[in-house]
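In response to a reviewer's request, we include the raw inputs and outputs for one of the modeled complexes. The two entities were modeled together in a single run.
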Amino acid sequence: MMLPRRSTILGGVALAAGSAAPARAQLTIDMTRPTFEPVPIAIVDFAGDRVGADIAGVVRNDLQNSGLFRSIPPSAFIQQNVDANAPPRFADWRGVGAAGLVVGQVQQAGGNIKVDFRLWDVVVGQQATGLSFNSQPNNWRRLAHIIADAIYKRVTGEEGYFDTRVAYVSETGPLSARVKRIAIMDQDGANNRYITDGRTIALTPRFSPTLQEIVYMAYAEDRSPPRVYLQNVDSGRRELLGNFPGMSFAPRFSPDGAKVVMSISAEGQSDIYEMDVRGRALRRLTNTPAIDTSPCYSNDGSQIVFNSDRGGSQQLYVMGAGGGGERRISFGEGRYATPVWSPRGDYIAFTKITGGSFGIGVMRTDGSGERMLASGFLVEGPTWAPNGRVLMFFRQQPNSGSRAGSVTLNQIDITGRFERPVPTPTDASDPAWSPLIPQ
Amino acid sequence: MRMIKAFAAVVAMIVMAACSSEQQAAAPATTTVTPGSVADFRQNVGDRVFFDTDMSNIREDGRQTLNRQAEWLKKYTNYPITIEGHCDERGTREYNLALGERRATAVKNVLVALGIPANRVSTISYGKERPAVVGSTEAAWAQNRRGVTTVN
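The model returned the following structure tokens for the whole complex.
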């Protein structure tokens, strides 16, 4: 498709590190520390082509929205016309309070574009990282996200998450006849497109690991029970994932994409099943009179976390991926729901309902160390960024009289420090964060 | 035919208005409707029962409604029956889909126990997706935690 080719720009540019810089900011951040200041960073419009300013704009937006960086406004810059291939005037950049400086250039190369960038450590006066890409011109947004990921990684030591997409449910119309369509957009809200037509309610989209397919639940046009569908994102071709007499719902791919775990209802009982995507073999994993639903595989695929009311109230349980060995892991006050295993394997995020309020929290995978990150009238449905350090969820405001409250996607880091709304063209719920787009 | 449909819509609006005031399982009314019609079922029998928070057991008021429903359904046997299970907005989406299914099944089981053939009754859960009353108050939620017997 579009595969940007990348190569590293070695720090071939000699430089004279100036006198020891005032150590008020550093080009490094430990995001697990309880407090820190965002890293001040200056991102210069990339030289050489009009799209260079657009690229710089996307990089600024990505880094600023992470909460870990403070993008210094270009109007404050002292040095103008920075040469992308020579050391900058570090004193000028220290003068505007920058710890890091990003410069780059765009060159036309036989129908493709070649994009170079360097991240300068202004504090120590050295190149911190640099990369070069060859790609199709219409691919510039992805290049910008990949550049932002490289900067994020160099500064935080964590993998970035900007070159990703988000699937969600677009909501329009009155609540009594709400139209709910699956949409997919880039992580920053660009390139929004609709995947279902809205004629029936579609809910809970989830990506396959390649991003080429999604699974979701949708109602039928007649009054047959809603069922789980598998849909190719690009071709739009969709197929029913098993035609059961009862409702099937709450689907989620295994980390290798070979299986989908979901709930199937019969006689008021909802149990968890695993389906082989290729052969469509079905295997029952739970069998209790209770509601067993919202299953999610562990990052290594060996376990499944789910919620069940088998003990009287909705709580989180973990079992082996083939079923069995079920054990409860949530023991706090309230009801626990929608567990999602971090792609790093260290935490499980969940929705918690206590009294009249909803919260989003994380706990270790054995249920210990519970920490609440966000709360409100209704917050629900956390989903992990691929680096396991940022979550997205949805926030619904109370209805005011007969007026529907707004429903928005929100992003928060796992320290709970930075929460920000994620822009969508319509009201939005049920976010699903994709893995990094394969390069 | 067109006349009857329009009339049914008016009756449905009256029933909805009655529901939004306070918990009323059925509103026996004096308006004349054709016996055996959908409007007759909704208006004179009562098409819905209500549930307590996170519960799916049929309450006493609901049991009376279902008794009337069963009598009516045994008299007018040509209608296919679909029972919708619904929840209020105070639960998570997937759990509420399952809870709505459980509520619909609870209604179905009572009707079957009262003599309605099981193969005449299907169920569908709408979870929290289709509130009858829009509002974020306990009164609205109480109206939305419901099982609705539909006969068309």
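As requested, we also summarize the result in words. The mean pLDDT of chain A is 93. Chain A touches chain B through 49 residues (CB under 8 Å).
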